[in-house]
Structures are given as C-alpha cells and as structure tokens.
Design goal:
CATH class of the largest domain: Mainly Beta
Structural class: alpha+beta
Strand content: 35-45%
Low-confidence stretches: none
Number of strands: 13
Order of helices and strands: EHEEHEEEEHEEEEEEH
CATH superfamily of the largest domain: Ribosomal protein L25, C-terminal domain
Radius of gyration: 24 Å
Helix content: 10-25%
Mean pLDDT: 87
Distance between the termini: 64 Å
Strand order of the largest sheet: 1-3-2-6-5-4
Number of helices: 4
CATH topology of the largest domain: RNA Polymerase Alpha Subunit, Chain A, domain 2
Length: about 210
C-alpha cells in the first residue's frame, strides 16, 4: 500500500488572482483542501518542497498527512496546475480523505522479471499499452504500484487486466472489457523477414 508522507501548509486568508500572485511571490504555491463534507480551506505550500514531491512521479497517488497550523489532515492531491509558458506550479488541490471513502486514482504499472521471459530472451519487445491503470479503491489503501510478473511470457503473449492480482478492495474503472496492459511483440528483424517472405510468395504466385 502507498506510504503516507508528511507535508506542511499554511492558511491563506484571501482568495483571488491578486492574492494568489502575492502568495507566489513569497515562494509559496496557493492551494485548497476540499471534500469530506466540510468547507473548502485555502492553504499554501512551500514551492521547493512541493516540487520535490511532484518530481517523484507519484504525487497524485500519494497520501499525505498535511499539517495546517495545529491540525493534521489526511489528504490526497487531486490536481496540480502549471503555468503553460514557464512550466512552474501555480496551484494545487487536495482532497480530504475520510474513513470509508473510495476514490478513483491512476496507479503506475511496474513490470518485473524481464530476464525470466523466454519471449524477451529471444529478442521480443515488451510493448506497454498502459503505463498506468485507473482504479477505484479505498482512499486509505491506495496501492503504490501494480506489479506485473513477466516470468514465462512468450512472443505473441498479451497481458490482460484479468491476469493481474489487484489489492483487496481495488477494481479497475473499465469494466466492460478485459483490456490489454502489455504485449510481447516479435523482434523487428523477425517481422521484416515475415514481410519479405510474404512479398516473395506473392510474386511467385503471380508468375
């Protein structure tokens, strides 16, 4: 399960574009905490600290104990906005996590044991169709990643969601089909050889 990290925020007194710009000039990122059947709370987080968390690549699927003054709130980041030209963070949204709640979140896929795949050993290529899987899961039990074992996979094999052991309480949001996560594709040289053989066979048949 995903580890809970700690983060500190301070209360913002004013909303609006002018107040947000003033917050950013202080090296802070304006944000809001919402949900949990409570009023939204305006906060700000230190830019350098927030950017370090974002750069992990798991920010939007990580649970945080957010300390705001004397209070600590369990939150999950739900949105982060960037300034389109200079690409720096301008706003962040946090969702309050209450006991028993479920949430939709994209969880990264981790592939292991490529060296134990006969297909990859023969030159096959792991073709990743989905780098992340969108899950509905308990808000306090978000998996850090979905691990897929490639042991025994061969060229031409496909890995579908039905073959993946998901954590208890988690289920994919796509329920109308057994979608593909990855395939083991034939090596490029082998594919080119098949194409050439097919072309020669066609020419022989025509002559």
């Amino acid at each position: 399960m995903a580890q809970t990290h700690e983060l500190t925020a301070v209360v913002r007194e004013r909303a609006g574009k002018g107040a947000a710009r003033a917050t950013r000039r202080q090296g802070l990122v304006p944000g809001v905490i919402y949900g949990g059947k409570m009023e939204p709370q305006l906060v700000s987080v230190e830019y350098k600290v927030l950017m370090k968390e974002v750069e992990t690549g798991h920010f939007l699927s990580t649970m945080y104990s957010l300390k705001v003054g004397d209070e600590t709130v369990q939150v999950l980041p739900r949105d982060i906005q960037f300034e389109p030209v200079r690409d720096f963070i301008i706003h962040v949204d946090f969702l309050r996590v209450v006991k028993g709640s479920h949430i939709t979140v994209e969880v990264p896929v981790l592939f292991i044991n490529e060296e134990a795949s006969p297909g990859i050993k023969r030159g096959g290529v792991l073709n990743i169709v989905r780098h992340e899987i969108e899950l509905d899961c308990p808000a306090d039990s978000i998996p850090e990643e979905i691990t897929i074992d490639l042991t025994g996979t061969n060229i031409g094999d496909s890995i579908h969601i039905s073959a993946v052991q998901l954590p208890e309480g988690a289920k994919p949001t796509i329920t109308d089909r057994d979608f593909t996560i990855a395939t083991i594709a034939a090596p490029a040289v082998l594919r080119e050889g098949d194409d050439e053989a097919g072309a020669e066979g066609g020419e022989a048949a025509a002559s």
